Amino acid sequence: MRTEMLPASDPAAVRLAAEVIRNGGLVAFPTETVYGLGCDALNPEAVARVFEVKQRPSFDPLIVHIGALSSLDRLVHAFNPGEHRLMDAFWPGPLTLVLRKRENVPDLVTAGLPTVAIRMPAHPVAQALIREAGVPIAAPSANPFSYVSPTTAEHVWQALGDRIDLILDGGPCPIGLESTIVSMVGDQPELLRPGALPLSDIEAIIGSLVCRGGSDRRPPVPGRLARHYATRTPLTILPARGARPLRTGERAGLLAMSDPVSRNGYAFVEVLSSSGHLPEVARNLFAALRKLDALGLDRLYAEPCEEQGLGLAIMDRLRRCAATIQSEEPSL
Ligand code: AMP
Ligand code: MG
């Protein structure tokens, strides 16, 4: 199959993409977080193809994207006041809420869970596509499972360009990190994955959240698998900004948070933001990891950033990228 890549600025391309979705096809499209690989969330065969194309294990549930609150009625049971306040404050935007699902949401979408993860994206192309398609769109990131998420149409093309029906090119994603996932279905509100919406913004609305790690979760949340968002080249996080490479005799690449940077000992350096501005770091992170990964280096080193605001999600992704392959197995 030869995948078509069309400019998202062309309304005819968005209409065609919506038709592909309605007919059970797969469309990669931009959101404010990363590029998604979308299909009709209520069509189990289409959902099965998303899993197959991504080589995604079936225990990894998908996020369902909606365009309007009115779509919630057919997908989930009544939600509580806290969930309502979060929707009010942050939708459309990079917050995913785990809610109690209705029967017509296919089990494949939710990996058999009684809950479904829902998000209302703010990106105008994502909104137009959902509106035109007239169905909720299930969409994981448009990349092979466990690799670095795509933030440009070109990234999608490189990995999936012969396996999906259409790519809508809407330019680079404005945020560049996946959504924050919150669940309020248990006893206490819980942060399931740090992401593009800072934790402090959420806590300002509903109070403090519990943040349990990946190991005590059942079933596992794949965005929380130890090794995820990973480059093929091994990556090590430096103990501090400006630290020298930890081993000698390697061709090493450095992922630097800001300028100035000491290039000593590195074959290649990528600076994520000259001023260390975290939104710019986030926006450039995945593209920089891909660029370094393509150079055939022995090892990548990443400078750490402070775990405040977006820094929490940035360090979460770097740690998962750095985790060893041996710890990839989910802990059940
Ligand atoms: P991705 O779209 O690849 O970034 O992954 C979506 C994330 O949402 C995964 O980490 C899923 O495990 C998580 N997720 C989706 N549905 C649920 C759910 N019902 N409960 C908990 N986490 C979920
Ligand atoms: Mg993903």
Summarize the structure.
This protein is α/β, with parallel strands linked by helices and 332 residues long. The protein is built from ten helices and 14 strands. The model is unreliable at 214-219 and 326-332 (pLDDT under 50).
Describe this structure in words.
The chain has 2 domains: 4-211, DHBP synthase; 235-322, Threonylcarbamoyl-AMP synthase, C-terminal domain (Rossmann fold, 3-Layer(aba) Sandwich). The chain is globular. Helix 1 (11-22) crosses helix 6. The chain has 10 helices and 14 strands. With 332 residues, the chain is an alpha/beta fold. A 10-stranded mixed sheet has the order 1-8-2-3-7-4-6-5-9-10, sandwiched between helices. Adenosine monophosphate (AMP) is lined by residues 60-61, 63, 98, 110, 113, 115-117, 140-141, 178, 181, 192-193, 221-223.
